[in-house]
Amino acid sequence: MLIFEQSRSGRKATAQSPAAAADLSGLPEAFIRKEKPALPEVSELQAIRHYTNLSRKNFSIDTQFYPLGSCTMKYNPRGALAAATLPGILNRHPLAPESHSQGFLSCMYELQEMLKDVTGMKGVSLTPMAGAQGEFAGVAMIRAYHQARNDDARTEILVPSAAHGTNPATAVMCGFKVREVPVNSDGDVDVDALKTLVGPQTAGIMMTNPSTCGVFERQIEEIAQVIHDVGGLLYYDGANLNAILGKVKPGDMGFDVMHMNLHKTFATPHGGGGPGAGPVAVGERLLPYLPTPIVGKEGSDDAPSYRWLTDKDIPETIGNLSAFMGNAGILIRAYVYAVMLGKGGMHRVGEYATLNANYMAKQLEKAGFQLAYPDRRATHEFIITLSKQTKDYGVNAMDVAKRLLDYNLHAPTTYFPLLVPECHLIEPTETESKEAMDEYIAAMASILKEAETDADMVRGAPYTQPVKRLDDVKAARELDLAWKA
Amino acid sequence: MLIFEQSRSGRKATAQSPAAAADLSGLPEAFIRKEKPALPEVSELQAIRHYTNLSRKNFSIDTQFYPLGSCTMKYNPRGALAAATLPGILNRHPLAPESHSQGFLSCMYELQEMLKDVTGMKGVSLTPMAGAQGEFAGVAMIRAYHQARNDDARTEILVPSAAHGTNPATAVMCGFKVREVPVNSDGDVDVDALKTLVGPQTAGIMMTNPSTCGVFERQIEEIAQVIHDVGGLLYYDGANLNAILGKVKPGDMGFDVMHMNLHKTFATPHGGGGPGAGPVAVGERLLPYLPTPIVGKEGSDDAPSYRWLTDKDIPETIGNLSAFMGNAGILIRAYVYAVMLGKGGMHRVGEYATLNANYMAKQLEKAGFQLAYPDRRATHEFIITLSKQTKDYGVNAMDVAKRLLDYNLHAPTTYFPLLVPECHLIEPTETESKEAMDEYIAAMASILKEAETDADMVRGAPYTQPVKRLDDVKAARELDLAWKA
Amino acid sequence: MPFIPHTEQDVQEMLETIGVSSIEDLFDEIPPQLRAGELTQVPEALSEMDMMRRMRERAAQDDGALCFIGAGAYEHHIPAAVWDVATRGEFMTAYTPYQAEASQGTLQLIYEYQSMMATLMAMDVSNASLYDGASGLAEAVLMAVRANRKSKSRKILVPGTVHPSYRSALEAIVEAQNIEIVEVEWDQQSGTTLLDALGPFTGEDITGMVIAQPNFFGQLEDVNALTDWAHAQKALVIGLVNPMAMAVLEAPGNWGEKGADIAVGDGQPLGVPMASGGPYYGFMCCTSAIVRQMPGRLIGRTVDLDGKPGYALTLQAREQHIRRSKATSNICTNQGLAVTASTIYMSMQGPDGLANTAGACYQNTQALVEKLTSIEGVEKAFSGHNFHEVALTLPAKASAVLEKLAEREVLGGFDLGLSYSSLENTVLVCVTETKTDSDLEVYKLALADVLTELNG
Amino acid sequence: MPFIPHTEQDVQEMLETIGVSSIEDLFDEIPPQLRAGELTQVPEALSEMDMMRRMRERAAQDDGALCFIGAGAYEHHIPAAVWDVATRGEFMTAYTPYQAEASQGTLQLIYEYQSMMATLMAMDVSNASLYDGASGLAEAVLMAVRANRKSKSRKILVPGTVHPSYRSALEAIVEAQNIEIVEVEWDQQSGTTLLDALGPFTGEDITGMVIAQPNFFGQLEDVNALTDWAHAQKALVIGLVNPMAMAVLEAPGNWGEKGADIAVGDGQPLGVPMASGGPYYGFMCCTSAIVRQMPGRLIGRTVDLDGKPGYALTLQAREQHIRRSKATSNICTNQGLAVTASTIYMSMQGPDGLANTAGACYQNTQALVEKLTSIEGVEKAFSGHNFHEVALTLPAKASAVLEKLAEREVLGGFDLGLSYSSLENTVLVCVTETKTDSDLEVYKLALADVLTELNG
Ligand SMILES: Cc1ncc(COP(=O)(O)O)c(C=O)c1O
Ligand SMILES: Cc1ncc(COP(=O)(O)O)c(C=O)c1O
């Protein structure tokens, strides 16, 4: 039942707004709203009961194993929420004077420094509000760099075919043409093909490493050489940073610019689709173009003072990408996570994320599933392909994913990357226990049996959720995007 | 699965305790624990996931209509939680000096004053930690009163047969013998019988008004007369205060002492069984005996100062009933509720609670259910008896209660009061909407049909809960009260 | 190991299964020269207790002043229930509802959000959110360019009364798209955009026009006239509004003859804390006619195999994960949790509650203006009407006054001189329903005091 | 109408159904002379916003001092997750799990709690909670009297080292039960209960004896010897303990030859905030032999109709709702939510975490003693060993010193002179894991300063 269907005209069971209507007679009629919005009129209890019950129709990290590949659904420490909701932090106005901001600014400055360290980069701007906006900032900086050199011929961004959809979409938003780079059957980029694609038109390349194939791009140094040789720059999509956190720094691989997804690697909650944070980090060459604002530090280490750096300090900046400084509350959570992890913990993230993925990969292989890259080490995630099951039993990757829900396990990412048919991209993350993974492995083995013996049943899954499979075609054809009385 | 079954020896996935063990070598061996307690060893995520999922196996006010009679399961404002968890309130040490307690004490003092007003009493002590401890305090004061007068013959407390179990249990804890007073078929006390029971041995009577029969005791003034005439005192069990809040004051009915259940009438959460708070209020005669501590006010209204009153101020007190001042955090919530309700809201509570109960009673009667007291007004709650259904279909009060769970509605109180056979005691409270009640009424009508057509099915209910009916006999015979590895 | 559950035994068993002898072996495909050394800027781990202590100390440093700053972020009462429910694990730790059957909670909630936002804006449809108001404005401009197929100019009129940071974000984001952003001059007397200022553009090919209500100065624009003028030029109208204000002010869908085509803005006032600037969310509504040009996610109502109603992502062919380089935007992760809170907030306000809250903001602002303008030399900078922000001209430099006010724990507003060189002595002040009479009095006394100190 | 959902139309329809014309009519059975007039001490309603503002102001009044008071309530770190989960609506707004099938969450949690508390105390079983430690002690005494059928004396020995408020609550609660509470003298040198002091009782009919560990002075009692002595008199032993301390100190079930018969205490240290004294909870454990004499609820594991494990209230025949005047106690509502928090807390600490936390308390206390006794005239009041509280003798009246410390925002401890006339110059100081070295230094400097001021 929708909240609107619980609404009754005139219901005002609330202690949440002034009891009386204000006198608006000072405002001319022309400005005044004529017809009330049809917002629901419910009691506090009704609202709480409704939304509490709605929440119970979700899977989540707090309630289920959620190995959604490329999304790093790791434990989100509740301590980070507690810190971010301290009144002095929660209620700080974004334009509060620096005299009333030293506490907040010191956290942001320290976060910048930590991110520089783990990325091996020279400068960080925290402002992008998600990975895709980080990509935008990064590619816009590449553009600014070439423009500043009057290098106007650079109209192309290279993107491996396995890349996430935001990569090509971003390149286009930044005014570039996109050229796809093929990927070999072992998951690495086809470097020979790459060499034929580069030239003076090459503004740069966007890469994920480990790639979205769940393997480490072994020729990364050669690729960097190829791109740099023709005058292009390398963009690192940090969505998979969890795999190598504390093990390899993107800056050392030759990347010039990158974003991080703090809602992945730094354990800030995904919130049912966001918010995230996508800070950008750059090497020497792109420092002048970082998006604003950034936090600067002055004075001695004993008595530091922090201030905002804006376009007055960074005149060649690509500018500001939001009204204020981006998703500050998420940045605070990421800072807290980094502080609680510490140096030692930071080194462990990649290790245990990788251990878990390789363990699951091996066990699923033993259980009869086909790995997409059986001869490669898995990184923090890995791919199985269900082509055989699709052919043999007519049970495809989506069917298996839906059936997992009946086992009270969230499905992995399906049908991404596009170049592996019928695929599951599985990312357990380092915070899941062996027992949780064993449960998933057992469920997959059981579903495989079900596919053999009762394919129809599997194709009809799920059966235990609030709804069965939904009619997506109807959703798109008979668009119903808003409730009407 | 139990949390213990998820434990693995040596798992230390926590940022919640010092990383290293302390040096205890300063302590002699004899004091030191030899064998570790078998507490679970789980990660933070495992703990959160486990207890989050456990919570999802509960019905609650926030998720279901919960008309548990005598328990006043009304909406618990979240604002009260927010106020009670403000750091200055949450972290205040109970023995903090008065210089650091004026904020807290002012709230407690104001709560005392408000409770005096709504009860029509002369003094309040907030310290009892639940209704039953309030009863204890009240009856102990009655005892102290008679003792102070050297009136040693008063060895009996009268209790109507419909009374809650805590009433007789309390009287015994206070050293009295319990005599039951019969109740008429209209729900009122049998005053003639009462008259034969009273005498110089009568210490007092414990009454609930409205009674647990869900009707207002109409002869209360006469009863007060009878008791007072023989030198006894009247105790008011305030569990049903919600029915008359703002409408009738117990002090005006002739009661000498009473408790309130703030977790009922003042909307503090029930917490899966507690904590509650059971302040006592007294008339003039019992003022000297109030349990300590109490908050006193000094100085002018403009510059008040508050301090604890202890046995130095109240030398004849029955004493302290807890280490400090009782369930302070619950008292804060009740204070906040009273403040948000205000005078107007306080008057409305009884009105709408009564309106809802009478509406449901009438509709259930129309739907074919038998009211226990059809000729009486319902108060904030009412009773139906399922004797007929038990006889006709073999479907009893418990079966119907269990079947309600399948309709996603919490069952009412069953088999209480004991004097009405096969009964449901139903209390909707004022915070439930007509729609919620209509849903319940429709479910009851539907269950009645089911009883007619498929009694076996109803007797097997529930079917939709995490477990089916449990084997209580086995639970008692093969006692398993603690997990063993 | 904070957050990592592995026991020694787990690790051994797993390594055996994999067939390697150490975790280190799992990294053997990485060229050794790429392996990182020790981190130098990450200190040793703090326990949650030590972390909280640090954070409490830092939070306390910034806390305690009375805040009269608005300028795009507004202090409103947020019912305790809103975030209690929004931070339930099932909402907070889920991700984008790709598995619809296991995400009906989030999906239905967004559908309800879309419905609420559409009715609040008096528009047909709403998306599921964009990052914030400023980037949302940029997306709206990009959308207008896509949607107004008849216009070839790619020219967008943007009044100078639009939030300066929104305008610079707009420039930064559409920079590479060959779009001409033209600033429309504002009237110094009324602080609004006059039809006169549009005269030079009449008859030109204009792709779209942005109209802010209230505008950055808190002034009310003549939205009806501006909308009709823009439509007469065949431009699409982008209404940029404060959603709280729409409880009492006419909503974009009802502006002028035909209503705005797109409504956009920042959802922060609806239950989202100020939190140093985010996470907030950009809302975006539009007419049905152009919904296929919308960026961001959309949730549709449909049915399941049994015909039971359910909710799912729809029109995904607009999005990057399907359309890649041809998508309407690169947005992927949006601001879901802030939207969750806003939806609960709106349900707990209702139409009357929201109107009363907005009305209280307006009244309190009027009251503060009266108080402050009773100080000599303090005047309203502009004629006309305001909602809950107002530009006040001071008898001193705004920056100096604000600094001295801050020393007195009053954050007095936004220094308009930072963005408008003609307004060096003007401060933009905001008052919401959270302020009491005594707060206003505190401000007045502090200001009088500061002005005496500065001007002798 | 805050919290009441009825519309005018709802009310009309409902009145019609009932067949009356006004709500007032529903009260027609109440004698008119009993009807209340207007409330005079209840002010007009505040909105949640105004209420929160008042409460923030009042909370701030009491906030900010460093707290070294213990004496029955202890400041410990509480993981953020504990109350985030405990305050989920499903836990917080449910009631006693009478409908077992719809309460498996609470029931299983309490079963886990019982299991954890039993293992922490090294006892067989635990109940589901009592109100607090003090009233819990009274219930333990009543239980011992019921359980020790062979003893006729109804005499209970209670050392003077037991918390004075616990002793007075005990007296108040068992007052009418004809029980003789006998105070055992304590040794002024060691601050503990010596076997010597028990000499006069040897060979008597003693029903039970209370043994506190640590005792009120923070001193460690020779629990093994005391337990064996009591058992030799056929008395039941009631161990009164701080549950946090039991992570490192020997637990009641292992005291002496046979272990204590009942363990009781306050669960507050395990994840429950100090909150001005409550809600805390009293825990109670006992041997299997006497479980049927236990007061309070018990949850048992059983199976459902399908043989699936499940949890239910059991041995209810001990309770007031079944047995009425013959019940083991009148307790009904207990302290469920605090128990919920404690259960989560214990699961997040584990045996090692809890031991490390307890160990840090011990260490920090040692460190403070060292610091403070370096001030001239400040000395440990007693020989022997402590856990995390210590009695320090000062060269001035404790009450005066504490008052002056409070002015310096240090709450320096509990004035033992309030309860022990011989200890006017002695303060009971507590240090937990929450205190840093610099906190201890702050205390030291403040104390030195105060003593200089007082003693010149
Ligand atoms: C590989 C990759 N790149 C980029 C992104 C985009 O990040 P965001 O969703 O934070 O915009 C994602 C996230 O889904 C991703 O998996
Ligand atoms: C009528 C009646 N009296 C007394 C009590 C005891 O109150 P409490 O459970 O708070 O101890 C109750 C509560 O269940 C009750 O319903």
Automatic annotation (TrEMBL), chains A, B:
It comes from the Bacteria. Residues 351-453 form the Glycine dehydrogenase C-terminal domain. The keyword Oxidoreductase applies. InterPro entries: Aminotrans_V_dom (IPR000192), GcvPB (IPR023012), GDC-P_C (IPR049316), GDC_P (IPR020581), PyrdxlP-dep_Trfase (IPR015424), PyrdxlP-dep_Trfase_major (IPR015421), PyrdxlP-dep_Trfase_small (IPR015422). Pfam families: Aminotran_5, GcvP2_C. The glycine cleavage system catalyzes the degradation of glycine. The P protein binds the alpha-amino group of glycine through its pyridoxal phosphate cofactor; CO(2) is released and the remaining methylamine moiety is then transferred to the lipoamide cofactor of the H protein. This is Probable glycine dehydrogenase (decarboxylating) subunit 2.
From TrEMBL, chains C, D:
CDD domains: GDC-P. Keywords: Oxidoreductase. It holds the Pfam family GDC-P. Residues 3-441 form the Glycine cleavage system P-protein N-terminal domain. The keyword Translocase does not apply. It catalyses: N(6)-[(R)-lipoyl]-L-lysyl-[glycine-cleavage complex H protein] + glycine + H(+) = N(6)-[(R)-S(8)-aminomethyldihydrolipoyl]-L-lysyl-[glycine-cleavage complex H protein] + CO2. The keyword Oxidoreductase applies. Its EC number is 1.4.4.2. Gene3D superfamilies: Aspartate Aminotransferase, domain 1, Type I PLP-dependent aspartate aminotransferase-like (Major domain). It is an enzyme of class 1 (oxidoreductase). It comes from the Bacteria. The glycine cleavage system catalyzes the degradation of glycine. The P protein binds the alpha-amino group of glycine through its pyridoxal phosphate cofactor; CO(2) is released and the remaining methylamine moiety is then transferred to the lipoamide cofactor of the H protein. Belongs to the GcvP family. N-terminal subunit subfamily. HAMAP family: GcvPA. The glycine cleavage system is composed of four proteins: P, T, L and H. In this organism, the P 'protein' is a heterodimer of two subunits. This is Probable glycine dehydrogenase (decarboxylating) subunit 1. It comes from Litoribacillus peritrichatus. The gene is gcvPA.
